[in-house]
Structure formats: structure tokens, C-alpha cells
Amino acid sequence: MSKCFKISPGGKLTGSIRIPGDKSMSHRSVILGALAEGVTRVSGLLEGEDILATIAAFRAMGVNIEGPDEGQLVICGVGLNGLRQPQHDLDMGNSGTAMRLLSGLLSGQSFPSCLSGDKSLSGRPMRRVVDPLTEMGAHISTAEGGTPPLQIIPVNGLRGIDYQMPMASAQVKSCLLLAGLYAEGKTCVTEPAPTRDHTERMLRGFGYPVSSGGSRVCLEPGFHLKATDMVVPGDISSAAFFMVGASIAPGSHIEIRNVGTNPTRTGILFILKQMGADIELKNERTVGGEPVADLIVQSAPLHGIHIDEAHVPLAIDEFPAILIAAAAASGETILSGAEELRVKESDRIAAMARGLTHIGVDVTETADGMRVRGGEIQGGTVDSHGDHRIAMAFSMAGLLSNTEIYIEDCDNVSTSFPDFQSLAESGGLDITVISK
Ligand code: S3P
Fold this sequence. Notes:
By secondary structure, the chain is an alpha/beta fold.
């Protein structure tokens, strides 16, 4: 049985909502809490399946974790050298973040391990982490084609490297920093464009020194992580669907409370504002070392733009939603320099281009992006390809479509946004879940 969404046309988004915790920060708080000395209490944790996979992995490695319960998690950290050999493969489900971050951490352990995943994750590229980890001295084997499962064999010590990342990836950067905790000498990573910096911020929050300057970040072994209390803000990537929905549906006025606004994540705000969106940040504050604000979004006429390639890594997870905004905008929107979208939970360029075409939008797919000519949105059936963000993005298109939109294969929405349907419904979207 798989879930399908039926979106009845029309409606607007109103009221005040609080979206679930940030996925990237939730993963990192579990990982660093487990490696810290002492008890870490996390609040605001995302209780999505991706995070449950990370929690299960650390439990399997002997870490005592209570919860999650209403976003609260208590982690009895075992210290950097306290993990134990798991008795089974560590199943990371749908989560690329969990697999890539853990591959770095596990490369530095004295026990063997195996990281596996679901069908989508089993097709995703892992050489981007395996190659630099191998340079550090790690011993990892993959399936043919450089995909999971990853078999990690213990080695007699890793060595730090100075790595120039070929792509802008926070997962690769974080993987290498976690491996660097166990390496001899300094580990440095230089990124071709800024990517989310939650790992660096959080390591410092746990008292571990990390130096950064320009596009380079470095750390050295020999320090400890000290348990701390972590407050995870709401996920701007989940807020994105509501920002777009409220922007395109006339008469909308919505408040999205407690959204993380780390500058490495706010590309969507630039892009939507450039398209004419009316988004205001209120109550800007710092929570747990991260900037947070409430967002007030009102509907506004949008127009197409050529998206600045410099904004692409800063909005990397938001393109499914942004492309729905483009479909509702007047004129043409051009996305380029976004080839990384082809290796997400689905090939998001292909999945969005096909889905938009099915609902009557004029789209031209390119190797690294697409052109979208905004106009009328029709009803139809769209395949989400099991990708949570594709499913949620097309749900918002229903606010403007002229007949129903059916979205297939929506089970994975619960990887990042378990309450999406009820929250969207409370905001004004006419969404029904059908089990097929
Ligand atoms: C993430 C980094 C990004 C993003 C993913 C979460 C992270 O992936 O798409 O959803 O938490 O580090 P890449 O590093 O592959 O760009």
C-alpha cells in the first residue's frame, strides 16, 4: 500500500503555523550528542523517519537515547571513543545525510560496519565521500557504480587531508570533518561555494574547536565534545512549501513561526523576493547558536527570473517548491548550475519537469536545470518518484490548479515532515490522503 495525495483545487493559506524541526540540525544533534561526554538534551527535534534512522544507528552502537517525545531527546553520550560494534547493518532508510555523515565517523572506528539504505538511497552516489575518505586512509567498499551499501573495514588510523571539494556539498564537508576527529593531523575542507555550516557551528557549540576562514574549514584531533542542550529551530526547507503556497494563492496571509534563517540556508528568501514575493521576517533572534525568525508571507503577483547560480547551493533543497512558484509566475524562470539536483532523493530536475508537464506547464529540461514558462496550472496526476519534497511541492500547485491534482508515491513525506497533511489542511489546503 502506498499513499497518494489528492489536492482539490483552490483555497488560500491563512493562520499561524509552526513547522517541524530542521532535518540537518536534528541529524547533527543526535550524532554529536552521542559522541559527547555527558548528557545532551535536544528539543525541537524533527521526528521524521530520517532522524529515527540516525537514532536507531546510534542505539545499535550502544548509545542510550531516550525519546523522541514531542521533539525532546535525551542522549547519554559515550565520548569520541565509546561507540560499540553494531550487531547488524545500519539501515539509513532514505537519508543521504545520515549515510554520508556516518561514513566519515565510522571510518575512524576500530570496528567494522555496513551502511545500507532504501531503493532511492541505494542508487545515490557515494564516491564523493568514499574517495576523500580513502585518501585519509579509510577502507570502504561500495556496490558497483559507487553506490550503497558501504562496507567499512577498520584501519590502523586515519590521516588528515587538505581537500578541495569538487562540488558544493555540506554532506561531504561534514563527513570529512567527522572523520577528521579521528585522524592524525589537521583535516581541512575547501568548498567551491558556501554550503550549510551547521556541523561547524554545532561542533563549536559542543566545545570542539573548528577554524574557518573564507571557503576553508579545518579541525584537529585531540579535543573532546562536551554535552550541551540543543534547541533545533524549524526547518526552512519545510517552511518553503508554505512560503510558496501563500505567495501564489490569492488572499493568503500566513505566519510561519520559529524558522531557522542561517544565512547558508536562506537562498529561497532571495529567490522568492526577487520574483516579487511578499515575505517579512519578524522577531529575529538567535536560538542555540543559530538565527531564527517568524516569517509573514502574503500572496503577491510573481514574475519569472533568471535564478542567480550563486543562490543555488543556498536553496538546494527548495527547488521543487521554487519551481512551483515559477509555474505560477508571469514570464519565464531559468534555473541553471543546479546539476546536483539530479542526485537528490530523486532526479529532481527530471521529476519536476515531468510533473509540471503533466499539469500543463510549459517546461524545457536542460542538463543543469530548466526553463519554466509560467501560466495556467491544470489538474492531473504527478509521480513524486518517492521524493518527499516533490510530493509536497506539487501539493501547493493545487492551490491554483483548475481541477484536482493527484500525487503518487507520497509515503516518504514522513521522512522530513510527518505532519505535512494536517498542517497544510489547517492552513487551508484541501488535501486528502488516499491509500492505494
Ligand atoms: C544536507 C546537505 C545537502 C541537502 C540535504 C541535507 C545536510 O546535501 O541537500 O538535504 O544536512 O548536510 P548535499 O551536501 O548533497 O548538497
